[in-house]
Amino acid sequence: MFVSFFPRPKLFFASSILWTALAMAFWYGFASTVFQAPDKPVGLATFWSAPAMWFDLYFAVSVAVFAAAWMLLAPHPWATWSILGSALILFTSYFQVQVSVAINSWYGPFYDLVQAALSKSAPVTVEQFYSELSTFAGIALVAVVVGVMTRFFVSHYIFRWRTAMNDFYVANWPRLRTIEGASQRIQEDTMRFASTMEGLGVNLISAVLTLLAFLPVLVRLSSNITELPLLGSIPYPLVFAAVIWSILGTGVLALIGVRLPGIEFFNQRVEAAYRKELVLGEDDAARANAPTLSVLFSDIRRNYFRLYLNFMYFNIGRIVYLQTDVIFPYLLLAPTIIAGKITLGAMNQILNAFTQVRTSFQYLVNSWSTIVELISIYQRLRSFEAKIHGGPLPSIETQKEPAS
After folding, report:
1. pLDDT tens digits for 11-21?
2. In whole angstroms, what is the distance from residue 385 CA to residue 196 CA?
3. pTM (2 decimals)?
4. Which of 140-149, 252-261, 386-395 has the highest mean pLDDT?
5. Residue 332 class from Cβ within 10 Å (0-12 exposed, 13-18 middle, 19+ buried)?
6. Which whole-number Å values give the CA distances from 381 to 215, 270, 271, in the listed order?
7. Would you say 70 and 8 are in contact if contact means Cβ atoms under 8 Å apart?
8. What domain of life does the UniProt record list for this protein's source (predicted)?
């Protein structure tokens, strides 16, 4: 899955994490303070301000140095896509997060303007109102263009990854053909792995970058909140509440759904057995008879019913948690709102920043169903790689699915 697309995957990913950490430490520890603007602009000017342009240049130079080192020391036929393509996806994801930060900055003056107009506490003209809306329209236009182009590029990136996996497995077909459902694993599992990684990978990068961007915002906005219900006054109350609430929900739902990856794996096994018998029956009249197909399909039915039951438990917990999650930030802000200690603009900034941070921590909660599918596909493709290298098959390959 990885060696076909990335040069020396274990070392590559370890070095990329280390290089990213060093680059970020240098930027946030030194360079960002040098190029920091005295006043942070609001609107489109955010994207071409001096600090933003310096960061773009710094990112490009860091990527160029890293990519050049790998291309020289460990040449790989897919290096251009795997290294530079990954860097471009990382940058566009960062840019989209900056769009969210720009919108959050816009919330403050806009909703304060709305509050002033509704309460008649200050004169507000139609021109001022439309000016704020045009500022949002400009940010939204950038978000649409960058979002569409990013999705287009990611689709091509993922198909190149699938192509690399396909070529790698086809080259080793004589060894792989005896694995159960070998044809399905090469054709369907590589396709599903690529398409699943497209969504999960981009969302994971976005969640991490959103967390890095909005945590400082939430720390700053926490100065407006003096206490939390039940807990009273604590340092950085909003950050504390977001972290604890998200970790609690993720842990509970992961515990409820712990059996789902194995059941999904068995689903693929029984589906492959049924499909194989039907294919053999196309050329051999002695195969795919009614009694055999009935037994194979009963295996499918039993496994799917077990999957549905486990997903019912999981969805009860997930839906209850997410519905409670809607009102959770209002519960936290209740004492501050009732006391009238924040304006409408500050409240919306806090709610949006809190939601962004909380959602980033809830990546597993929102993606667990897809992660279950990806784990199943990963386990099936790992069997291919074990066969190629002459190693033992993963233990799940020899396990029998539960009888009920």
Report:
1. 999 999 999 88
2. 20
3. 0.69
4. 140-149
5. buried
6. 37, 16, 16
7. no
8. Bacteria
